[in-house]
Specification:
The chain has 199 residues and is an alpha+beta fold. It has helices at residues 3-10, 33-42, 79-86, 103-119, 140-151, 179-189, and strands at 71-73, 94-97, 124-128, 155-160, 170-175. It has a domain at 71-189: Ribosomal Protein S8, Chain: A, domain 1, CATH 3.30.1370.110. The protein contains 6 helices and 5 strands; from the N terminus they run H-H-E-H-E-H-E-H-E-E-H. It has a 5-stranded mixed sheet, with helices on both faces. Helix 4 (103-119) runs parallel beside helix 5. The radius of gyration is 35 Å and the shape is elongated.
Length: 199
C-alpha cells in the first residue's frame, strides 16, 4: 500500500467538520476632526470659529515694579485734565478691587467693569490692583492692568492713585465721554458741531 492509499484508509471514518460562516462586521470608526469639517463644509454647514469676546491680551506684558507710578494718556488729552486726574480731583464714580484675583479672573473683571462704566457714562473710575510685593512675580496684576488699560479704546488716560485711594496699589482711569454726555455738554455750554467742551 502506497502512502496515498494508507492516508485515505486512515481517514476513511473521519467526518468533515461543519463549516460555520463568521460574519465580520466592520466597527464604524469615529470620523477625525478634519473629516468632520470636510463633511460639514460639503453640506454647507461651515462652523464659525469660536472668538473670545475679551480682547485683552494674555501674553507677556512689560513688567512693572511694585511701587512704580503708572501714568499714560492718549494724544489730545489736555494737560490740565491729566493733572486733575493725577491729583485725584475728579469724583470717582465706580471702583473695582482685583486683590486676590488670578490673571485670568482680573482680565474678565476688568473688561466687564469698564464696559459697565462706559455704558453708565462714568468718567473716572478707580481700579485697585495691589502692588504684589510678596508674589512670586511681583506686580503681576499691576503690570497687566497698566497694559490692559492702554488696550481699551474707551480709556483716554490713567494715573496711579493718591495715597488715600491706595497709592501705587491702585490707578485712576479716565474714560471718554459717551455720545449722550457729549450732547449734554454741548447743550450746557451752548456749543455746536464737534467742538469739545471743557473736561
Amino acid at each position: 500500500m502506497n502512502e496515498e492509499e494508507s492516508f485515505k484508509d486512515a481517514m476513511s471514518d473521519v467526518a468533515p467538520l461543519q463549516q460555520r460562516r463568521v460574519r465580520h462586521e466592520k466597527v464604524p470608526q469615529e470620523a477625525t476632526t478634519s473629516q468632520m469639517e470636510r463633511r460639514e463644509a460639503a453640506l454647507g454647514n461651515t462652523r464659525v470659529p469660536k472668538v473670545d469676546p475679551n480682547y485683552l491680551s494674555l501674553g507677556e506684558v512689560p513688567q512693572k515694579r511694585p511701587r512704580d507710578i503708572l501714568e499714560w494718556k492718549k494724544d489730545g488729552v489736555q494737560h490740565e485734565v491729566f493733572k486733575k486726574l493725577k491729583s485725584g480731583r475728579y469724583p470717582i464714580e465706580g471702583s473695582l478691587d482685583l486683590h486676590g484675583c488670578t490673571v485670568k479672573e482680573a482680565r474678565i473683571e476688568m473688561l466687564k467693569f469698564l464696559n459697565v462704566a462706559f455704558v453708565r457714562g462714568w468718567r473716572t473710575v478707580l481700579i485697585a490692583h495691589g502692588r504684589g510685593e510678596l508674589s512670586k512675580t511681583p506686580a503681576r496684576i499691576k503690570s497687566r492692568v497698566a497694559h490692559w488699560l492702554e488696550q481699551i479704546p474707551e480709556v483716554i488716560a490713567f494715573h496711579s492713585a493718591q495715597n488715600h485711594h491706595g497709592g501705587t496699589g491702585a490707578v485712576y482711569a479716565l474714560l471718554k465721554k459717551t455720545p449722550l454726555k457729549k450732547d449734554e455738554n454741548r447743550e450746557r455750554y451752548g456749543l455746536k458741531g464737534d467742538s469739545s467742551p471743557p473736561a
